[in-house]
Structures are given as C-alpha cells and as structure tokens.
Amino acid sequence: MSLRQLLLRLSGYHGASGPPHRQWWCSRSLDTISSVGSWRGRSSRSPAHWNQVVSEAEKIVGYPASFMSLRCLLSDELSNIAMQLRKLVGTQHPLLTTARGLVHDSRHNLQLRGLVVLLISKAAGPSAENCQNYDMVSGIYSCQRSLAEITELIHTALLVHRGIVNLSELQSSDGPLKDMKFGNKIAILSGDFLLANACNGLALLQNTKVVELLTSALKDLVHGAYQENSASAKGHSITENIGMSTWKEQTFLSHCALLAKSCQAAMELAKHDAEVQDMAFQYGKHMAMSHKISSDLQPFIKDKTSDSTTFHLNSAPVVLHQEFLGRELWIKQIGEAQEKGRLNYTKLRETIKAGKGVTSAIDLCRYHGNKALEALESFPPSEARSALENIVFAVTRFS
Fold first, then answer.
1. Burial of 353 (0-12, 13-18, 19+ CB in 10 A)
2. Do β-strands 338-339 and 140-141 pair in parallel, antiparallel, or remain unpaired?
3. Residue 25 falls within a domain, yes or no?
4. Is residue 39 part of a domain?
5. H or E, element range at 364
6. Is residue 36 part of a domain?
7. Are 258 and 217 in contact (CB under 8 A)?
8. Within 10 Å of residue 80's Cβ, how many Cβ atoms?
9. pLDDT tens-digit profile of 57-96?
10. What is the CATH number of the domain that holds 81?
11. Domain count across the chain
C-alpha cells in the first residue's frame, strides 16, 4: 500500500470532503486599506475557474505542485508516522483533516506557494551573471526548484503544527483524552521533521541571503501564530475589534511573508538585481493578501451557504464591517445575534452582508490584485507571466 493510499484510508477519505472540523487555532489576520484603486479590466482570455488556472500553471512549470515534496513524504520516518495515525481514526483530531488535505487538495490551495515560486522563476528567466544549472527546457534553475520544495515543506509543517488541539477545550465527542494527547505529540514530531528537512535543504543551497530570507519568513510565521494565540489566551471578547492596523500586521506575518520572501529568494538564486527581487517580493505579498481576503469572503458571497457555516470574526469582511459601524453598534449587533448564550452565525452573516464590510473587502481584494499585476509589469511577457496574472484574475473573481 502506498503512503498516499494509507493516508487516505487513515483520514477517512472516500471521495467526499467529509464533515467540517472545529478549527482549534483562531486565525487573526488581514490587511488595511489606505486607498482602494480601481480594478483594471480582467482579460477576456483569462481562465474563469481556479482549478483550471492552477492546472494550466502546473503544465508550464513541468509537473503538478502537489508532488514537490514527494521525496520527503515518502521517507521512512513519515511512513511510520502515517502508521501511527491509525490510533486517531474515529476521533475529531485535526491532524486527520490535515492528512486528508495533503493528499486530496480539491481546491489546489495547499501547494500554491511552491507553484508561484516556480512560475515567477520562469517568468524572470536566467540572468547574465548566473548561467550554471539553468534548465533551458523548463526555464527554471535547479536551485529554484529546490527552493519551491523548501517553501512547501515550511508551509506544510506550519499546517501540521496548527493541528495541535487545545486540550482545555475538548468535548466528549472529540475522542478520548489519551488519543488527543497522542495526536498532539504526532503533530509536533512530524511538523518538526518537515522543518528539519527544510533547514537541511536551505543549507544545501549555499546562499546566505536566501537562508536569511527563509529563516526570517519562518520567524514571521511563528510570530504571527504567537500573536493569534496570545490574543486568545487573554480571553479577548468576540465584541473586540482588533483594528485594521493589527489586521494588516498579522496577515503579512501569517499569510504573506513566506510567499513574498520565497519569490524574492528565487530571484536571488538566479542573481537578478535588487529591483527584480523587489518586484518578485511585491507580487508574492499582494497576491497572497488578495488570496487570503478572497478566502475570507467565501462564506459571504457563495450562492449556497449552509446555515451552520461559521466564519472568523476577525476575517476581512467582519473587521471592515466593525470599522464602519464603530464599537457600540458592533456590540449591539453581536447581542442581537446571540441565542441561548450562543452566537447565531447565520443571523450575524446576514447582518454583515447588509452592511459595507463585504463590498469593501471585495474592493480591497481587487486593490491588492492590482498591486500584484503592477509588480508583474517589470517581467517580460511570457506564458509564465500570463499564468501568474491568471492566478490573480481567478482569486479576484467574484461573479
């Protein structure tokens, strides 16, 4: 039995997405908007659907991004960890959901970062200062492919570490306490193993600036997670507005830094100048920002949304809604949405949709999409650049 088959069996996947699990770590994020630029006209040639965009992009770089960290996932160490996951079957431990997502990513979101790194590497092409190890067929340096794998390993390790359960919030339906504790140990060990492989890969690149960029991105991820958990540990009320400045900082740390700095590192490996490196950084930053905002918008813009669907109270539409309302009116709306001591998300969602938060979040998403497209203008026209543009078009498509 292959590792993929084993993970599918252990995670309970049988061709459906399965029931949603409670998110154990709240995600405080998102960006502020100082001015919303007008959205440039969307290309009529751009693919309409996200899956189509990713599929075409994968063909350009040579292989599906989901296989980038295959060497690590097929190692004996992770195979042993997968075997240990048997003990978690029947529980609600989020590590099982993570395992399912790694082998069945129907939305093609998990491997997005590595794919973008490869695309922007190909879009930039070779530099006059570095012609060694450049693949004329794929248009990508071998070290840039290694960097894409490292980026995916870091992101996957973060996902695995986020699957640690807060034992103080356990419910009887989640599973036995000993199983949940065991799941936490597996999440810590497997996440650390992935990070160790990423660090080893960074050392093999033998580029101190790239090592500095990726380690600082890892520091940003840890800092962002710390801020989220610190706010939660202080018992912040659901009526508290984190503010747009805090939202901006936490979004960059938790969702944008890794991709932005990986794109910059890809340019450094090819010995491109500082201006090209900065444009790659800007594309990664703004594309990641628009992708996160688009994800936050989904519960508010989907035609068919389950009445039980919850959403983060610190997501883009909600934070912007609070900004327009002010604290007093927001507290009043939260109170009106309470039923028997619990928050009625369906009622609150309709209230937020009636305000300005959703439309403002859409404008903000398109603003960052525009900034990402502007950064791409410094790269020569190519199929890789078009794929990067189409990713932005797909992320900012709301009709």
1. middle
2. unpaired
3. no
4. no
5. helix 357-376
6. no
7. yes
8. 10
9. 888 887 555 444 445 555 555 556 666 665 556 566 666 6
10. 1.10.600.10
11. 1
